[in-house]
Amino acid sequence: SLFILCAMYKRGIVQVWSLEQPDWHCKIDEGSAGLVASCWSPDGRHILNTTEFHLRITVWSLCTKSVSYIKYPKACQQGVAFTKDGRYMAVAERRDCKDFVSIFVCSDWQLLRHFDTETQDLFGIEWAPNGCVLAVWDTCLEYKILLYSLDGRLLSTYRAYEWSLGIKSIAWSPSSQFLAIGSYDEKVRILNHVTWKKITEFEHPATIANTKTIVYKEVEKSPSVETERLSFPPPRALASSLFSTQSKYDVSQVPVSLQYIKPAADRANPKMGIGMLAFSPDNCFLATKNDNIPNAVWIWDIQKLKLFVVLEQLCAIQSFQWDPRQPRLAVCTGNSKVYFWSPAGCVSVQVPGEGDFQIVSLSWHASGDSMVLLSKENFCVCYLEREEV
């Protein structure tokens, strides 16, 4: 966290500034090769730039000013993945109409392993948090997930079904013991790390019938304002609360019918299947979103392998993310509120601010004390007060 990187893709330029030394700065110009992506290496001393048409990845060193090249990176959703300890990098490659994966050592960018994958059209790669297994999955037209060891051996292949749209999202549990696979058939399948076989599958029906599942429903309530306190014009803080509807959660009586949307079958990328998956940091919970039921977040108890809670929102879920330190989920739905769930219950928080701040994405700080909320044009940082234990 000592440098700031700024990428200007249209100009093909990356600039870097140091927070400690204001006079130090760095400018990388990719020139005619162009620039479509730029990211830090885990050590914060190298910058990886992907050129236009994915011709190569250029690795620039800030310390030695040396340059390394990685050829033929594949243009796919998740083509570069680092292990959590930052020691290794996997890159998906495409050459001669075949998919390959190269594994590099991040300290000196030497090639450790290069192997071809049994995929038709590789879509993404992701390391298990312990860095021992690399998951490689195929395009949605082919249900296939392959698990490779660090030395390039194929450990296992998993296919749930054929002749239908396949994998939409995956998530590793923080302990690397479980791999959750979200599919277009509205199910999540959990694989174990010993046999790589399916332990269970979670369905996402439109009706919640189990009496042990808690369903929190968001309801709007109009703000009550004492008329004697009103001055005209009203103070700014009061004005924003006057016109913003507040919301709270009610516990619904089971059975509950959730709002279900039938996807348009004749369009590309249909709004169906499990689009978002995330494990809590303590491995106890899994949060999922079924795109057919866009207003609901499903929270599963991983120890009991059962549905624990469903949050039914008034608007469609844009994003959710777990607090990195405790089982607390933050959810945003494109309005000016943040919703928090923890095993203790649910709360809706209005973001104070002028105008309409529509939160479309959020990101926790690693300490869990603060988070960044993003709208299309603005962002704000919100700080959470810690309860004294």
From TrEMBL:
Gene Ontology terms: cellular component: microtubule organizing center; MWP complex
Any one Pfam family match given in the protein's UniProt record, by short name: WD40
SMART domains: WD40 (SM00320)
Top-level division of the source organism's lineage: Eukaryota
Protein name, as recorded: WD repeat-containing protein WRAP73
